[in-house]
Amino acid sequence: MHKSLTTRLRDIRSNDHAEIDRLRSDVALQKLLLGAREPITEKASDWLERRSGDGWTSAVTDQTDAFLGYVQIGSIHRDSRTAWFGICLIEKARGRGHGADATQLALSHARDRMNLRKVLLKVRADNPAAQLYGKIGFRTVGTLCEEYDSGDSIHDVKIMEILLGGQAGEPSIRHQPASAMDLRTR
Ligand SMILES: CC(C)(COP(=O)(O)OP(=O)(O)OC[C@H]1O[C@@H](n2cnc3c(N)ncnc32)[C@H](O)[C@@H]1OP(=O)(O)O)[C@@H](O)C(=O)NCCC(=O)NCCS
Questions:
Q1: Residue in 185, 137, 129, 172 with CA at minimum distance from that of residue 5
Q2: Per residue in 134-149, pLDDT tens?
Q3: In a mutational test of the pocket of ligand 1, which residue from 96, 131, 144, 162 has the highest number of ligand atoms less than 8 Å from its CB?
Q4: Is residue 138 packed enough to be buried (19+ CB in 10 Å), middle (13-18) or exposed (0-12)?
Q5: Ramachandran quadrant class, 139 (left: phi over 0; alpha: psi -120 to 50; beta: rest)
Q6: What's the gap in Å between 168 CA and the centre of ligand 1?
Q7: Ligand 1 mean position to 31 CA, how many Å?
Q8: Best exposed site among 24, 43, 111, 129 by fewest CB in 10 Å?
């Protein structure tokens, strides 16, 4: 049962970096995210700087304003106005509706503020997050067989996409802050 709570997106602050470093150095979590098999040593500040070149990263928070995780829209194709989505919440924030609501907020941001037309994602086939995306409206467009080698096992990876609307020939918009976004969950 979900508690009544608010999910918000806000810009990432320097005092969020320690939590981001912790998430990125969690090898089991990174393997779920199709990431590195060894602890990542790149600092959060460097990672965020690197990712800002072709996308947008935002903190997920609630009414307390505490850092609960992040969402990303990256690898933007500027002419086609498509991009790839990612999300990771800290453990204690999971299972309370923040993931679904933060995904919806990120899609709103992609459509309304970045003028994107389509958002795609990759998810390890055994990750229950795939159910979340399906409920939101992503459809599975294919499965990459034996795509990701975690070191212990080899995993299929689903590719999912959601269309956001939009006409041909419109420009994409590079980045706008997320500070005004707010959504109350169940
Ligand atoms: C995946 C993640 C973002 C989901 O966020 P969340 O806040 O835990 O999920 P929600 O509470 O919003 O759940 C929404 C739906 O997702 C599905 N879901 C999410 N996590 C699940 C789990 N561990 N087991 C089963 N279903 C799950 C359910 O269908 C759920 O709907 P329900 O509450 O009606 O049953 C979060 O758990 C997370 O950060 N996990 C680790 C990183 C990760 O896997 N990221 C995704 C990579 S593609």
A1: 185
A2: 999 999 999 999 999 9
A3: 131
A4: buried
A5: beta
A6: 33
A7: 16
A8: 43
Which residue owns the Cα nearest ligand 1 atom 17? 132
Domains and CATH numbers, the chain: 6-119 (3.40.630.30)
Distance CA 12, CA 21 (A): 13
Closest to 56 (Cα-Cα) out of 127, 106, 117, 96: 106
Smallest Cα–Cα separation from 30: which of 74, 103, 88?
88
Segment (H or E) for 121: strand 118-124
Residue type at position 160: M
Given a cut of 70, the residues of the chain with pLDDT beneath it are 1-4, 174-186
Name the closest-CA residue to atom 42, ligand 1.
88
CA distances from 183 to 68, 106, 138 (A): 15, 11, 20
